[in-house]
Each structure stands twice: as structure tokens, then as C-alpha cells.
Amino acid sequence: MQAGNAHYRQGADLPATIPVFPLAAALLLPGGRMPLNIFEPRYLQMLDQTIAGDRLIGMVQPAFDGEMRADDEPELCNVGCVGRVTSLSETGDGRYLISLQGVCRFRIVQELAVKTPFRQCRIAPFLADLAEDPSAAEIDRPALLRTFRAYLEANELEADWESVSRADNTMLVNALSMMSPYGAAEKQALLEAPDLKARAETLIAITEMALARANEDFGSSLQ
């Protein structure tokens, strides 16, 4: 079972319909934590309703092609991640500062016609996310760490290597994926990877491509 999923062991523990929060280039993964600053009135209302209910919302990206619906709302990617609101504090200027913990991914089955100002969808959860991922033991951890170190060095960044060394494979892959500075399409590819091993391989490939592009740009600047 993923860290933080003690409340959710089977599909029946999850609602069939959840409010969704579209946010570009935001990646929430099962077991991961995401801080959010909520200020739009419709999403403040969404949080009020969520906290009074099951504390679950769906993080999902707007579609990459920029296609808009008739009501000027963006179309959505098909896959997102359910997050549980684990903390909420209210600021003096009316904002909510919340923390979401990833529960499991979902596929949008249908967006509902609702009267609420926020959007709601009927979902099909990825039930495999509620159990331990057997592919975690197959991850090439040394390759992942080598690539991560190379990226940090290329960008003159530091990391808490003590914490990195203590993290198990699941936590390491998902944390590195969530903090990665890549764009919306790359984040969606990491989200939709079929298992943890595939996500690690995807992250390595994306990072190696970013490093190669940086080296090409550096070489071009010297010519």
C-alpha cells in the first residue's frame, strides 16, 4: 500500500465523483505531497465543500492543445490524481494554504453538468495504486541517482543527499518526478507511466534529453 493510503484500500473506499482542480504543469503522484495556495473564489468554495465532506479533490492538467469548451473552460487531460486534503490554514487575506497527499490516479469517465462554480467528474480510479507496486524492486536506483546528480551539477543545484539516501524507491521516484522542472507534457508522461519502474525510466530519459539539449546549446554558444 502506498504511503498515506491507509484510508483507501479498495475502489469502494473512493467516491465515484470528485471535484477537479485543473492546474497546468502540476504533478501529484500517489503518496506524494503537494502544497497549494488557493485564492480563486470558486476553488475556495470547492475547498469548503471538500473539507465538509470526504476531503478529496482531483488534480488534473488542462489539455495541451489549448482547446476550450463553449463556456471558455479548458478541456482536460484524461488522467489525473486524487489528492486528500491533509492540512488547511486560512490567511488573513482570504486565501487557503493547503497540503494534498496523493491517493491514486484516475481516469475521467465523464465530466458532469453541475451547478457548482467548480468542475466535477465521474472517475475510474487506478486501483493498482492502492497496493504496493512490485516493480519498485526492479528500479535501477544507481542510474536514477547518477542522472539526478548530473542534472543538479549541470544546473548548479544542491540536494539533501542524506534524505535522498534514506528514501525508499517509491518515495524517491515519485518525489523526484514531482519536483522535476519539466513542462506539462513531460509531467503527464510521468503521471501516466504504467508502473514505478516505467516512471523511473521515463524520468531518466526526460532528464538525459534535457542534459543533451543543454550541452548542445552550450556548444552552440561557443561557436
Measured by DSSP, the beta-strand proportion falls in: 15-25%
Mean pLDDT: 90
Helical residue percent? 25-40%
Distance, first to last CA: 53 Å
Number of strands: 6
| Lateral strand order in the biggest sheet | 1-3-4-5-6
Q: State the shape.
A: globular
Biggest β-sheet: count, sense, barrel?
5 strands, mixed, barrel
Order of helices and strands: EEHEEEEHHHHH
Low-confidence stretches: none
- Quickly give the structural class: alpha+beta
- Count of separate DSSP helical elements: 6
> Roughly how many Å is the radius of gyration?
19 Å
Describe the structure.
- This protein has 223 residues and is an alpha+beta fold.
- 35% of the residues lie in helices and 23% in strands.
- The chain has six helices and six strands, in the order E-E-H-E-E-E-E-H-H-H-H-H.
- The protein has helices at 41-52, 141-154, 161-166, 169-179, 184-192, 196-222; strands at residues 17-22, 33-38, 56-60, 79-90, 96-111, 120-125.
- The protein has a five-stranded mixed beta barrel with strand order 1-3-4-5-6.
- Strand 4 (79-90) and strand 5 (96-111) form a beta hairpin.
- Helix 2 packs parallel to helix 6, helix 4 crosses helix 6 (196-222) and helix 5 runs antiparallel to helix 6.
- The longest helix has 27 residues, at 196-222.
- The model has no long low-confidence stretch (mean pLDDT 90).
Features:
single chain, alpha+beta, 6 helices
